[in-house]
Amino acid sequence: MSTSIRYLRMYLHSPQGRKQPIGYLSQYGDILRVSFDRDYIDDPKRLTLSLSYRGADDAATRAILSAARDARLTRADGKWPSFFQNLLPEGHNRERLARERGCALEDEFELLAAAGHDLMGALEVEPVPQEEGIPDSVRLWHTAMGLDVLEPGFVEFPVEDAASLPGVVTKFSAVREGRRYTIRRHGAAGSHILKLPSTRHPDLVANEYAGYQLARAVGLACADADLISAEAVDLPEWLPFNEVLAVRRFDRLPGGKRVHMEEFAQILGYEPRHKYGRGIFHDYSGMLRILDRLSQDPARDVQEFVNRFVVFILMGNTDAHLKNWAMVYPDGVNPVLAPLYDPVCVTAFFGSVPPTDYGVNRSIDAKLVAFSWEDMATLLKTADVPRASRVLQVARATVRAAQEKWPQVLEVAPESMRRVVLDRLNGGVALTRETRLKAI
């Protein structure tokens, strides 16, 4: 094992734009460690990195942040703790980042270092100048574990225009300059995410764009998204498509300020490979409890969550996993439910691929199709949601609004999506089947 240690400095941007140091990330062999600054640990008004690092009170939070052995802070298998794993991309995006860095796909330290200036939320990481030596907060922990840490290893600065955008669909971080979008940002954090179709599903971005339109039509809070011509995009590779989906990042503000956010996979401690969680009643009830107890606007967020769930059932969105739900921190400390993003009608793709494809999504869809209003009431009871009857009443009204407004929106959606969603609106799922029976 090498006797050198590599480390990165962690910063959180405040809502006012201040870049505040909060700790270090270090690697020694297969051991990866998160070490927080004492000033950050002892500050009762500290910026929130993650609800997973927050205890029942401030003393419990300080204990978590300063723990010697805690899976949220330390791993010995070459992987980051789950919060940081979820900052890294998957699929083609991970492969591209590894190529840009010249590192292995499994080298999570280097992948995070490569995209350190453009991570999700308000977190930023970069190398510490070697002349500063190994910080005590890092060195003392490693030596206390009996490790022979002799000298700091070299870590390159982030790749200038690299970004880490969680997810599998090919996407780029970009800035908008007039009517054009460019990923050559000269090191600046991107303000937009550009999402590409695939050769397998050329209508993917049209599908997602229609999903945004459907969600907006029934009053859901969504990220801003537009279909743009591929000619307006400055990408480093040739694209055989005419349209690209441009999504304005809600974790970025004009002037370069950042808004912190985290996915529910990070909050609940799931690694990316477990992003589909343990089932609706287990995970969604936990998410509802978090919204009810910790959100700055619990009544609004609980209702929005349930309305979104209903809309995803009607839309055939079987990919609303725990990385596609998030919280944002407008004041840097307290969370609210993030705008809706990634609203894809995955069920529209089932008919164009072999029956063995999309196995996980097909299994999820079978549960969504059968999910009834009684199940919804059970979910709210399990989460101990206040005024559950009122929440259900508004959710039912959302279904009626979708039945009224969506057919017109779907006129410009891909044909495969239009067929699927219209069927669900007209009794193809339990929620609308029960509504029709009640009306009769």
What is the topological layout?
Blueprint: E1 4-13, E2 19-28, E3 31-36, H1 38-41, H2 58-65, E4 74-75, H3 82-85, H4 91-101, H5 108-114, E5 123-127, H6 136-144, E6 151-152, E7 171-177, E8 180-182, E9 192-195, H7 204-217, E10 225-229, E11 233-234, E12 243-248, E13 260-263, H8 264-268, H9 280-294, H10 298-315, E14 326-329, E15 336-337, H11 359-370, H12 373-382, H13 388-409, H14 415-428, H15 430-439
Parallel strand pairs: 1-6, 8-11
Antiparallel strand pairs: 1-2, 1-5, 2-3, 3-4, 7-8, 7-9, 9-12, 10-12, 13-14, 14-15
Q: How would you describe this structure to a colleague?
A:
With 440 residues, this protein is α+β, with helices and mostly antiparallel strands. Helix content is 37%, strand content 16%. The protein contains 15 helices and 15 strands. It has helices spanning 38-41, 58-65, 82-85, 91-101, 108-114, 136-144, 204-217, 264-268, 280-294, 298-315, 359-370, 373-382, 388-409, 415-428, 430-439, and strands spanning 4-13, 19-28, 31-36, 74-75, 123-127, 151-152, 171-177, 180-182, 192-195, 225-229, 233-234, 243-248, 260-263, 326-329, 336-337. Strand 14 (326-329) and strand 15 (336-337) form a beta hairpin. The longest helix has 22 residues, at 388-409. The model has no long low-confidence stretch (mean pLDDT 91).
